[in-house]
Amino acid sequence: MTLSTLDLASETVQLMAALGVPASRLSGGSLNVFSPVTGKQIAAVAEDDAAATEAAIDRAHAAFLAWRTIPAPKRGELVRLLGEELRAHKDMRSAASSRSRSARSPRKAWAKCRK
Q1: What digits encode the pLDDT tens for the residues 2-30?
Q2: pTM surpassing 0.85?
Q3: Domain residues of the chain, as ranges?
């Protein structure tokens, strides 16, 4: 790995940690994760077996069923609070987003094709 790849990989670990994903989930697995910007590997996550996948789907479905029983005004308030959290962390999101956009700009790609 190059220094820039290591920087991107460590930024990925930091971002995922801020989202509650432990660093241990990003290494040692058999599924390699590549940056869409550089094409370099930034993580290696573990595969889940069918039972673990089914359990995750069941948990997501149960959460959906619980969510839809919450009255709309309460859901709206939760969405508003989520928006506040996203705005509070916009620097982290902006860095990741701008890096991704600048590397995959459709205008830049179109300009290259036209030459």
Answers
A1: 445 457 888 888 888 888 889 899 999 99
A2: no
A3: 1-47, 50-106
